[in-house]
Amino acid sequence: MTDIAPLADHGRRPSGPRRGPAGKTTRVVVVAGLTLALAAGIGYAAELGPFDPGPAIPDPEATRQAHAFLADWEAGRMARAAALTSRPEQAERVLNSFTAGLDISEPDLTPGAATAGEDGTVTVAFTAKMPVTGLGTWRYDSALPLRKQDDGTWKVEWALSLVHPKLSSTAKFRLEREDTAGPEINDRDGNALSATTHPSLGPLLPQIAGGAGRGPRGAVRLVDRASGEVKGTEASFGEKSDRPADRPVSTTLDATWQAAAEKALADGADGKDAALVALRIDDGEILAVANSPSSGFNRAVSGTYAPGSTWKIVTTSALLLKDAVAPDDVVDCPKYLTVGKRFQNVETSEHRGATFRKDFTTSCNTAFISLRDKVGDEELGAVAGKYFGVGQKWGVGIPSYDGSVPAPRDQTEKAASMIGQGRVQANPLIMASVTATAVSGTFHQPTLTDGAKDTTRTTPLPREVVTQLRELMRTTVTDGTASVLADLPGDVGAKTGTAEVSDDAPNNGWFVAYRGNVAVACVVEKGVTGGASAGPVVRDLLGAVPDDPS
Q1: Using one digit for the tens of pLDDT, what is the confidence trace for 75-111?
Q2: Closest among 510, 508, 511 to 494, alpha carbons compared
Q3: Which of 31, 228, 458, 484 has the fewest CB atoms within 10 Å, counting from its CB?
Q4: Phi and psi of 171, rounded to 5°?
Q5: 223: part of which helix (H) or strand (E)?
Q6: Sequence ranges of the domains in the chain
């Protein structure tokens, strides 16, 4: 995104309307960034006053050290994580025994807010999602204390309680399993499913059985280190059921789609962590859930990712619902745009004098950010929840993360949320559902089992909005960044996405698509761009399964 000249005229020209392609009359969307920036500055000065230093700001180096510790712990690099603490030997021993002793595979550790203490320490909160093999995911919150050392570096101040707030010199955790025979689990046509034939289902099948009250059961107990006495239960997995043990559990999965999805990921993800979900548009029934690697954390359903430009489907819906923009309106697409920080387009592309249609099909970040004043601070989240069900509690049939679109804390975060960054969080399940809702107009809670309960409440999108969304996604295939699907027959539409992770890590690649009665979403971690990484995976899947299931 190029820096916009501060006095550039972004209002309507008095000489008359501008014209888009084919001589169509277009509206020019007003962008009033300067006034907002000046107002924000005046408000800041008025609030703090000349002598109020405001809250202490955490040292960025402390935050980076905390993020590095969590990344190493998450990746199983215990020695490296421990080296970032004040007591490396003890830290490495405890981290290893905690994850191995509780049979935890591929922890998901998400850093949160950093706060500076009056004593010079910095505390970084984090959320832990600990997949306990064969049982489910144990979730809890904790925090990392950091202290500046004599040599000027920051280290994590080691304490047992940072691993888990209740872990101490007198209390530890114990995993208890209850042996239960797993039931047969079938696809939508009665075909048996297994981890042998469909490896990605290995971690899911116990959860599916558990959702039906038929899966393995267990618990993580807090026990006294000396006596072994149970002091409490931190997590319970599985439920008792009165259903006969020999009755199969039915799912909405389709064995053909599941196999094709797993093969597409194995062939196209290039060894990177990746995930994919395919579901029916008319009822939300999930046809395939695939993860790479196939064992461990279920990224497809429980992952928490910035959805990047695939989120522009929701942003566009919010704009269209207000008649704040139309496809043929001219919304300039410069290389850069500064809103607190400098935003840019992929490969710093630009399209001067572009229409909004062009902005969508080429995924122009700067154009979308320039429209941020057209929606209220809480409006994007409200549209996501009201029309797309994002952020409501979903009853999928297995544990799922159902998305979050918090109100932005400042204009920079609002700009980021317009393009699926900032604190917007989703996963392939959510984005497949978003795609299905956009092209049908009606949200259907995604389901994996027959007994899934739907407690969501949504409103259908207006028909004219749906028509425009379908046309924009279709044009993205025929004349935009999703051209990888252009050779597929029929009415196929898509949206690409590139999501920033951090300043020093490759972007995640996203791709969502619809064809017939199926919506698909795929993310490839460190895929750099969606069109080049996730796009071929979706193309392989749709090419391998030409017919939609009935």
Answers
A1: 999 999 999 999 999 999 999 999 999 999 889 999 9
A2: 511
A3: 228
A4: -135, 140
A5: strand 217-224
A6: 60-129+139-166, 185-246, 258-544
Contact call for residues 319 and 375 (beta carbons, < 8 A): yes
Measured distance CA(464)–CA(85) in Å, rounded: 57
Chain Cα centroid distance, residue 257: 23
Does the domain made of 258-544 have the CATH classification 3.40.50.1980? no
- C-alpha to C-alpha distance for 3 and 8, rounded to whole angstroms: 11
For the chain, give the number of residues: 550
Contact 389, 379 (CB under 8 A): no
> Which tokens belong to 463?
């028909």
pLDDT tens digits along 41-77: 433 333 344 444 556 789 999 999 999 999 999 999 9
What is the H or E stretch that residue 43 is in? Answer: helix 33-48
Across-strand partners of 499?
508
Q: What is the pLDDT of residues 13-26, one digit of tens each?
A: 333 434 344 444 44
Average pLDDT, integer, range 285-314: 95
Task: Supply φ then ψ for residue 69, to 5 degrees.
Answer: -60, -50
- Give the global pTM: 0.69
Q: Nearest Cα to 110, choosing from 96, 130, 93?
A: 130
Secondary structure (3-state) at 172: strand
Query: 336-370 burial, b if ≥16 CB within 10 A, otherwise e?
Result: bbbbeeebbbbeebbbeebbbbbbbbbbbbbbbbb
The Cα 361–Cα 49 span in angstroms is 46
**Which architecture does CATH list for 60-129+139-166?**
Roll (3.10)
DSSP 233-251: EEEEE-----S-TTSPEEB
pLDDT digits (tens, 9 = 90+) for 376-426: 999 999 999 999 999 999 999 988 999 999 999 999 999 999 999 999 999
For residue 290, the cross-strand partners are 276
154-156 vs 171-178, strand pairing mode: unpaired
